Amino acid sequence: MKFKHTLMNNNYTNQDMIAVRKLLKNRNIMLTQSKKVEEFENKWSKWLGVKYSTFVNSGSSANYISISLLKILNKNKNKNEIIVPTLTWVSDINSIIMNGFKPIFVDINLFNLSMNTEEVLKKINNKTLAIFITHAQGFNGLNDELIQSLKKKKIHLIEDVCESHGAKYKDKKLGTYGLISNFSFYYAHHMTTIEGGMICTNNRKIYELSKILRSHGMAREAKNNSYEKKLIKKYKHLSPQFIFLYPTLNFRNNEIGATIGINQLKNLNKNNLSRTKNFIFFLKHLDSNKYYVKFETKGSCNYAFPVILKSKKIKKRDYFEKQLFKNNIEFRRGNAGGGNQLRQPYLKDIVKIKNFKNFKNVEHVHFFGYYIGNYPDLKKDKILKIVEILNNIKF
Ligand SMILES: Cc1ncc(COP(=O)(O)O)c(C=O)c1O
User: Fold this and answer.
1) Residue 147, Cβ neighbours under 10 Å: how many?
2) pTM surpassing 0.90?
3) Could you tell me which of 299, 275, 307, 290 has the C-alpha nearest to residue 372?
4) Mean pLDDT, 10 residues at a time, over the chain (395 residues)?
């Protein structure tokens, strides 16, 4: 059989399908958000180590609602800046823009593809409301200096863990450090619910608001009787069932997604262990003269192998890509989210930064960084074959 390595493989199991079939056999069921969604949220909170989780229809929706929550809770309107990495997914930045905040960009480290702490601290000023960190491609982006400085300066930490389910800083999972954290269950991630995302927090008020924002801004979604009673009294002229508190949309998920999620969660720890072993084995054999291998793997849990060239020559990079095509190795250039967000057209009228030289590391990843698939059932001999192909490419 011809050699082939895809970005993701076999992410739905037979057990997932059995669970869905069992769900569908029930008579008179609600397939829209209902009991299974609640069960998945509770199980996810327990797995992660937070009090509350809200299941939504994508990681992007989780991003958007999280920043909308900040907007609702922010009493000081002069605080309108949110610091973000240049290497992230587009929805992190768009959530900020669409909620009327200003994104302030910082460069990344090559060793964890996350925000450079020194730069973050330099860019904090009296307008800074929050830091929206992305734990990119399974790497931890946190450190004590960042956590302590944010605490001291009373700046919110929001964590995007959409690419790093199960990765840790010290002995705690990523997504438990911030005021709010986000996960994505898109097909190519550590686990899937077809499409889906999660908003997690230990704060009861934020949790209740996240459920309101998930579903049309409707007051009753909070399931807080005393709060609802007060609102009904306040808005006497409204139907108690239809009190819409904030402008938002419908970001709900459904019972099929939740059923798959509950089932997938059972295997997440085991699968993550395999992914981490795969990644360390991959790095050990990769030619360090040609590729960057000095990643901080402590606590990491990667659903993809980052492949960052040491060469800075576009011709050589193009040759590298040709070899991957020839050997049927599926890849994405730019690592998380296609590289430097500052180069994307959607930002051209919003951020007028032209000096890309100030963003040295993300620029290198933008032009010479890649990722290829890392999934739990990847065998050692296949990893060796991939490494052999990569190492034999002549630079
Ligand atoms: C870091 C990050 N944030 C957010 C998202 C958005 O997730 P979704 O595709 O579920 O909308 C992604 C998607 O891959 C991501 O990588």
Assistant:
1) 15
2) yes
3) 307
4) 89 94 92 97 98 98 98 96 98 98 98 98 98 98 98 98 98 98 95 98 98 98 96 97 98 98 98 97 98 97 96 97 97 94 94 87 98 95 98 93
Alpha helices in the chain (DSSP H): 14-25, 35-48, 59-73, 90-98, 117-123, 144-153, 204-214, 225-234, 255-285, 314-326, 360-368, 380-392
- CB neighbours of 268 closer than 8 A, spacing ≥ 6? 47, 165, 166, 190, 191
Half-sphere exposure of 249 (CA within 13 A, CB side): 8
> Looking up tokens 């296949």, which residue turns up?
382
DSSP-assigned letter for residue 252: B
Token representation of residue 90 = 């587009």
Residue 40, Ramachandran bin (φ over 0: left; ψ between -120 and 50: alpha; else beta): alpha
* 134 CA to centre of ligand 1 in angstroms: 10
* Percent composition of the chain: helix, strand, coil (DSSP 3-state, to 5): 45, 15, 40
Which residue matches tokens 């051209």?
348
Question: Which ligand 1 atom is nearest residue 88's CA?
Answer: 1
Enumerate helices (H) and strands (E) in the chain, giving the number of each. 12, 12
Question: From the CA of 195, how far away is ligand 1's center (Å)?
Answer: 10
Q: Is 311 helix (H, G, I), strand (E, B) or coil?
A: coil
Question: What separation in Å is there between the alpha carbon of 88 and the centre of ligand 1?
Answer: 9
Burial of 271 (0-12, 13-18, 19+ CB in 10 A): buried
Query: Does the CB atom of residue 91 touch ligand 1 within 6 A?
Result: yes
Radius of gyration over alpha carbons of the chain, in Å? Answer: 22
d(CA 103, CA 118): 17
Residue 59, sorted as left (phi over 0), alpha (psi -120 to 50) or beta, turns out to be alpha
Sequential DSSP letters for 75-117: --TT--EEEEESBS-HHHHHHHHHTT-EEEEE-B-TTTSSB-H
